[in-house]
Amino acid sequence: MSDVVSYQIVDNIGVVSVNSPPVNALSQKVREGILSAVTAAQGDASEAIVLRCDGRTFIAGADITEFGKPPMAPGLPEVLSAIENSSKPVIAAIHGTALGGGFEVSLACHYRCAIASAKVGLPEVKLGLLPGAGGTQRVPRIAGVKAALDMITSGNPVSAKTALGMGLIDEVISNDDLQAGAVQYAKDLVASGAPLRRIRDITIDPATVEPGFFDAARKKLAARARGAIAPDKIVSCIEAAVELPMDKGLERERELFTELVTSPESAAMRHIFFAERLAAKIKDLPKDTVLRDIKKVAIIGGGTMGGGIAMCFANVGIPVVMVEVTDEALQRGLGIIKKNYSITVQKGKLAEDQMEGLLGLISGTTDYNDIADVDMVIEAVYENLELKKQIFAKLDGVCKQGAILASNTSYQDIDQIAAATKRPQDVLGLHFFSPANVMKLLEVVRGEKTADDVLATSMAIGKKIQKVCALSRVCYGFIGNRMLGGYGRESQMLLMDGCLPTQVDSALEGFGMAMGPLAMGDLAGLDVGYKARQGRTDLPDDPKLYRMGTLLVEMGRHGQKTGAGFYKYDPETRRRLADPIVEGMIVDESNKLDIERREIDNEEILARCLYPLINEGALILEEGIAQRSSDIDIVYVFGYAFPAAKGGPMHYADHVGLKHVYDKMCEYRDLYGEQYWKPAPLLKELAESGKTFAQWDKERGAS
Ligand code: CAA
Known about the structure:
alpha/beta; Rossmann fold; N-(1-d-carboxylethyl)-l-norvaline Dehydrogenase, domain 2; 4 domains; 6-stranded mixed sheet; 19 strands
């Protein structure tokens, strides 16, 4: 039929097989192959048609690499029409993940069967899109409006069992051989005279949708949209499924899909999809690097961080030993883990016996000799270089040869830590983000002497514990925290120049950040930055610099943990509230510094907070700290809740134009001084040559 789609008749059933690795995406060739197979089957002796896939999964969606390119015939709607209008029943046989356009292909079939481990879903919203091949019209017709809305706006797939309950599939096949099971199912349907069931023929009675349902959904989704525009359009499509006939609904869906596929939001989210997968690849590492076996892990330090890291390993079945100095500290650490799991049990997301199983994987000790047999150690004690060096010297003494020794430090020099051992090749940084069992990012920090297999194993283990890994070289703060410097500084400088905290934070939250920088400071603890500043000799002697942050700490307002910081916090709800005391102080302090306060608009707030971050990113790139600009985007989207709909700071900079970013850096340099606003040479070079960071990556073979 074609090199990606084959057709044969098995036991009177026509079997269409898609074989287009890695995920059988609906490329032009696959669309063409399915269309000609289904067309050919109309005139042959087959009684029904089974559509199945080879390899690891059923069709996982449209081919995302084709978006943004000129359309190539046949379009997906044409393929779906051929399936739906087939004179013989077409049955989708699903394994792996039937996602997006793949699931929509199955919805155009007359029946769907799946093996129990299969999942189905419409994840387009995660790419800034909506299902563009009838998903928004067909799912509400069989699963109901509310279930469809939840499924399509969350983008989360459901299991075969759940899909069966929702009516999205018709049969779970117990036969280990899906093709054989599906052929039998098709024969049974034919034998029972099952009709050519078309989802399009179902109409939804508008009276079944409660008044105001769509408005309420829009409001709820807008509150958590964070710059994404697809959720609102998904609501419009589902509304169309209720109010319009099928073909009109499909037209509406196509129109809104086309708007989204050309939007900068979707381009940004598709960039993140590919950047996430690229970040896992280390440019100079041989592909055949043999990995070390990680069967047991030790965590040094039973604080919040250590506990969270231990949970990550237990969650994927890897036994963990937690090491603490005293029995009391150890019991406290193990207690926190138990409490965290209990909360998940209370929420109904974990069964009691599963929790016992997980806790059974986590043991504790106060004796380093007990971790002689582990394959990997992650040190997660507080930030003190001398202490970390002592711990690594001790680990060098007790751990077996070949064990990977990692530090979870956020700032310290991995090479100095490695030098405390006689095996620096086994040492690297594994920087988790708090809370470690929730946050997706893992910065993998490559020391001067870190061995290739240590790096490769750490990237693989990061993936296993379901983290998104990004590689960093050693520098103060690595990629993420190093870039935060100017962002935090300017958020406070803006207060002195004319803003109030709510204005700064709402500008950044309006942009899509999960939390503005000042509220973030309150959450992390203002005393943390205060203490870090005490030890620094490189900061300019400027009374304006971090003035409010310093004064607030000295007043005992350390942020959320003391009930007050830049904001005050409602003791019951912990909601943040503007505090007239702080607002008054801000105005007084500006006056004391003879600063004439002025109106500052959102555009300036965004530029002053985000452009220093981007500028530092450019320095990080030219110094070779990050492999590519898209890795920096991954660090920010998964570690710092930068909005995916903006694609991360470097993609955002490419979008607004590097010349614009550079010109603004120069403008602020002339206004506020070079000690804060010094354009990175790479930013200048790219701005002058009209290039983007993405092009820079490409020219270096990094993308
Ligand atoms: N198009 C093109 N390439 C794709 C792809 C797609 N839909 N899905 C995955 N790939 C590529 C990945 O980029 C990756 O390539 P590299 O090996 O070169 O890095 C490779 O396939 C394997 O992917 P993963 O590493 O993600 O493999 P996995 O086993 O961990 O996950 C998966 C498999 C669950 C299918 C995951 O890849 C995934 O979620 N894919 C995207 C699914 C999706 O969003 N579908 C909707 C597309 S939009 C659409 O369909 C619109 C419409 O309505 C018509």
